Amino acid sequence: MSWSPCPDPVPGDANSVDAVETLIVPRAVDLGEMEVRRALPSDKRQMVGPFIFFDQMGPAEFLTDQGIDVRPHPHINLATLTYLFEGQILHRDSLGSDLAIEPGAVNWMKAGKGIVHSERTAPERLASGQRLFGLQTWMALPENEEESDPAFMHHGKADLPQVEAEGLTARLIAGSAFGATSPLKTASDTLYADVMLAPGAKAPIAANAEERALYTIRGKIEIAGAIFEPGQLLVLRPGDEITVTGVSDGTGDHARFMLFGGATMEGPRYIWWNFVSSRPERIEQAKEEWRRGRFETVPGDEEDFIPLPDDDREVMRAEGGVHYP
């Protein structure tokens, strides 16, 4: 597949200099066996397109008999997508889905009116140990899809188009970029791509999504003369085409970043624990349903679950570029 590069930024051109609208350095949380870095929501920005939750997991080294053990828990009015660079996670849900998430593949779970799932390390991986490194994202659903039936969709690594040209390699997870389109059917206009750049190679980022951001994974990248390190979220100014250049770190390794975004949601979303909705009263309803055991259970995992948090955290309001009230 091929793509047409856009012009390089022009020194002194305000459009080039201001290409990055917001820079977010994720806050790190040590979970004991693994560190998690949360980029969204943040106090600077809560959403980019439909993306309302963006976590980096690891990289972490799990020894024999170590792994993740996220017991069954509920979601409403959102879709989840876990994307791995290394390792494996076993996904099971109340629809009966039972499938491992592998590097480069997509497991897209639409919660709709309600779903329950668990995420664990498979027994064979517990026996051998593994490295785990990846991203967990949540996408808000448009209002007319929030109470739709839950669904699960899988695309293997080989199903996702990969673009290779002039030092650039990109895998399309969702949406269209670099002349390719992912087969994943999302609920709203969504862009998500895994991009690698050789030192000096360039990636043109078209303005074909209403909201766009980059999340740096490995190595350094340059935009309009500014250098960005790994583990940073860069919200791009709407409507501008930009060029990202891979920067040599002396090892010859490729820089790696995620390109993501999509259409702005019709209005704000509200977040509490694992619940996201356009209506705060719907979150209150979901709390009561989970407390009373009214969600469907995960086949083969019916007895174990994460209880509703017993705290007084307020429901938080999220909107692209707008601070929490």
Shape: globular
Termini gap: 45 Å
DSSP strand content: over 45%
- Radius of gyration, in Å, reads 20 Å
Order of helices and strands: HEEEEEEEEEEHEEEEEEEEEEEEEEEEHE
Biggest sheet, spatial arrangement of strands: 1-22-19-24-17-14-13
With helices defined by DSSP (H or I, 4 residues minimum), what is the helix count? 3
The whole-number mean of residue pLDDT values reads 90
List unreliable stretches of 5+ residues. Answer: 1-17
Helicity level: under 10%
Reported for the largest beta sheet, the result is: 7 strands, antiparallel
Which key features would you list for this structure?
seven-stranded antiparallel β-sheet; 7% helix; 325 residues; mainly beta
Molecular structure report:
- There is one protein chain.
- The protein has 3 helices and 27 strands.
- The termini are far apart.
- The chain is globular and about 55 Å long.
- Strands 1-22-19-24-17-14-13 form a 7-stranded antiparallel β-sheet, with no helix packed on it. Strands 2-3-4-11-6-9-12 form a 7-stranded antiparallel β-sheet. Strands 5-10-7-8 form a 4-stranded antiparallel β-sheet, with no helix packed on it.
- Helices cover 7% and strands 46% of the residues.
- Strand 7 and strand 8 form a beta hairpin.
- By secondary structure, the protein is mainly β.
- The protein has helices at residues 14-17, 123-128, 280-291, and strands spanning 20-24, 27-30, 35-40, 51-62, 69-75, 78-86, 89-93, 98-101, 106-110, 115-120, 130-140, 151-155, 162-165, 168-174, 176-177, 180-181, 190-197, 202-205, 211-218, 220-223, 226-228, 233-236, 242-247, 255-262, 269-272, 275-277, 316-318.
